[in-house]
Every structure is written in C-alpha cells, then in structure tokens.
Input
Amino acid sequence: MSKRTTSPPQLFDQRLLRAEAHPIRAHILSILGEGPSSPARMQRRMENVSLNLVSYHVKQLVKFGCIELVRKEKSPSGATERVYRAVERPFIDAEQWAAVDPKLRQPITATILRMISEDTGRSLAEGKFDALVDNHLSRTPVELDAEGWQEVVATLERALADVLEANAKSAERARESGEERTVARVVIMQYPIGREDPRERESTELG
Output
C-alpha cells in the first residue's frame, strides 16, 4: 500500500477505500502488492493475527473486488491453499485519506512502517542491503514553508511515478530477455516532526 498526497488519476475507488480502512486489510493488500500469496503464508508474516481472521478479511477483499483468486495449490503439509493476487496496486490520495476514520489512520500507517522495518531488517540479515554499491540511503532534515512542503510533495509524486514506470518496463524487458530481476524495496517518506528531540532534554530527576 502507498499513500499519495496529491490527486493523481483515480487508481483508487471507494470499494478499495473501504477495504483499506482496516489495518489487517491494509497489511494483506501490502503483501499482495509484492505478488500472489495465500492466507496461510500471509498470516505467518503478521503479528498476533489468527488464520481465521486473515481468511475473513481476504473474503471481504474479494467481495470488494480488490483481490482475486488465481489458483489452488498443495502446501507442504498436503493441505489445499488458495492463492490470491491484488487486482491493482492500491493508492490513497489526500482526499481519500481524509475520508478514512482518524482512529484507523495511525494503525494503517504503523502497519506500513512495520513492513518497511521488517523488509530492511531482512535485507541486512541476508547481507543484501549493501550488495549493490549504487543503492540509495539518505536521511535529510529540512525546514519547509507551506509552498516548500508542496514542492517536496510534487517531487516525491514524480519519483514514485518514475519508479513504477521502471518496474513495468523491467517486467516487459525481462519477458523478452529472460533476465532475472533484482527484488528490491523503494521507500519514500515525508513527514513533520517536533523541533526538539526529547532525548536532548536535560534530566531533572535526582540520580
């Protein structure tokens, strides 16, 4: 799942908005954004979520038309697993995000950030994060006025569009050449933060 903050061509309808407005469904859609998967495999990637609950939300997403069944396959245990895929990559623009219940925004955001943390940790553990010397890692503190904030919003929107175009072109070229593609994650974030870091405050407690 990705959050857009401007208003691109409508890739996100109200059915998907209703579907996204729940942390578990947002997590399912984010996983399926990586490729087809089954409820059992997705459940193993979630914390404190039962298989029955994942299966329930998968059915709801099918009902909303957000995902679809692509095949059935046998698991190593011999059970039959249903494999689903996302119908389209989900995006939420600013107007649609404002329509999400405020109580659900933070859990959905936390789900995305947790997946980013898990992806980053796995890449480091596998020794892949720095395998390509032209990978990108930056942390850029800035102070922006209202116009500057919108300029950054527009810049990141263009960057995301370019990343998705590169992904689509890579898939097309690989189909013709047979080249194996590099599995990667691209993370784009922009957010406000307090001016004072609480870790810098002088402690007044007696030691």
Observations:
- Helices lie at 14-20, 23-32, 39-43, 51-64, 94-99, 102-125, 146-177.
